[in-house]
Amino acid sequence: MKAWNTWERVLLALLCVLLLAFGVGQPGFMSLETLADSSFNFSEKGLLALALALLIVCGEIDLSIAAILALSSLAMGLALRAGFGPWAIAGAALLSGMLAGAFNGLLVARCGLPSIVVTIGTLSLYRGLALVVLGEQSISGYPEIFSTLGNAYLSEITGLRWLRVPIEFGLLLVFALALGLLLHRSTMGRRIYAIGANPVAARFSGVAVGRYRFALFVLSGLMAAVAAILLTGRIGSTRPNIALGWELDAITMAILGGVAIEGGRGSIVGTMLAVLLLGLFSFGMGMANVSGIVMSMVVGVLLIVSMILPRLLPRPGVRA
Predict the structure, then answer these.
(1) CA angle at residue 309 from 306 to 314, to 5 degrees?
(2) Max Cα-Cα span within the chain
(3) I want to staple 53 with a disulfide (CB 3.0 to 4.6 A). Which of 19, 24, 209, 254 is the partner?
(4) pLDDT value of residue 1
(5) How far apart, in Å, are the Cα atoms of 111 and each of 34, 115, 132?
(6) Exposure string (b/e) for 262-286, b if CB count within 10 Å is 16 or more?
(7) No. of helices (H) and no. of strands (E), the chain
(8) Which comes out higher in pLDDT, residue 317 or 96?
(9) DSSP β-bridge partners for residue 162
């Protein structure tokens, strides 16, 4: 097990300072119940950030990931209207997300188009589809299992009273562990780093660069679909503006976590620390009744700072 790099230690220190500051300034913030409930505020965004972390390490980006979430939620709503059951509704979301990610991957990996341009276009396409189909309406009345996934605690389904952790956050940790093992403890992970560091050299080394890029875009769509199932269940409806602007928050989490925007460097540990840091910060600011506009400004500042500061710290080299 490799030691944490310098930036991850900085994030951990900032997380401790944040907990101390809000613990002193906001009564009740440090209670276990409040901290557990706060994870409802960022678990779905964390899933998006994990997917983006892998893509950015590989030297790509997906600006349409929140729009894919909206498209997957729309697929759930249409399946519900068609009279399908819970499994088919969830399957519609997953299939829609993977197809949307595959379309992005096809344009990038097969056609050689820049991912930032492709996903700006598909962001408008996927979000536009949701807006056109739904208009000013929303779709509600989902089976109870979706509300349970989005709002219940692990203690309620396991019978372990001490395990008062939201199901959403438990799933986030499971995906973080799985993707962490993939990125840091597998041949595929080493190849993802190699592609991000130098795609030409990786290709000459025998790495199927196009296939890896395509697979990561499909994974991005799949993660967006999982987030759509959880978010739709939590709010109880499919709405035209669901997850609007979340791509900025997810990208900020990944970059703040130490993922180099130019590719080839980053870690799942750092990304998860950034998810916790930014998520708890937003929750604490909400408790303090800080306006959403101010919090959006703070997110923008953090995005800039998170790209500058890691370059001023010692670099440990490529994490693998």
Answers:
(1) 130
(2) 58
(3) 254
(4) 41
(5) 48, 11, 28
(6) ebbbbbbbbbbbbbbbbbbbbbbbe
(7) 15, 2
(8) 96
(9) none
At 314 the pLDDT is 59
Q: In angstroms, rounded to a whole number, what is the distance separating the alpha carbons of residues 84 and 88?
A: 6
Tell the burial category of 248 from Cβ atoms under 10 Å away from its Cβ (0-12, 13-18, 19+). Answer: middle
Structure tokens at 158: 């396991």
Cα separation, 155 vs 32, in Å, equals: 14
Overall average pLDDT of the 147-174 stretch: 91
pLDDT band at 317 (very low <50, low <70, confident <90, very high): very low
Amino acid letter, 257: G
Tokens 């389904």 locate to 157
Write the DSSP assignment of 156-188 as a string of letters.
Answer: HHH--TT---BHHHHHHHHHHHHHHHHHHSSHH
Q: Which two tokens stand for residue 62?
A: 């997906």
Angle at 278 between CA 50 and CA 145, to 5 degrees: 60
| C-alpha span between 268 and 310 (Å, rounded) | 16
Amino acid identity of residue 137, one-letter, is: Q
Cα separation, 226 vs 245, in Å, equals 18
- For the beta carbon of residue 46, count every other beta carbon within 10 angstroms: 29
Q: Say what the alpha-carbon torsion angle 194, 195, 199, 203 is, to the nearest 10 degrees.
A: 80
Estimate to the nearest angstrom the gap between the alpha carbon of 161 and the chain centroid. Answer: 29
Decide: 250 and 65 in contact? Cβ < 8 Å.
yes
Q: Residue-wise over 114-132: b if at least 16 C-beta within 10 A, else e?
A: ebeebbeebbeebbeebbe
Distant-in-sequence, close-in-space partners of 160: CB < 8 Å, separation ≥ 6 = 154
What are residue 238's DSSP bridge partners?
A: 139
The length of the chain is 320
The CA–CA distances, whole Å, from 91 to 86, 192, 196, 303 equal: 8, 28, 32, 34
> In Å, how far are 73, 141, 221, 223 from 146, measured between CA atoms?
12, 10, 20, 17
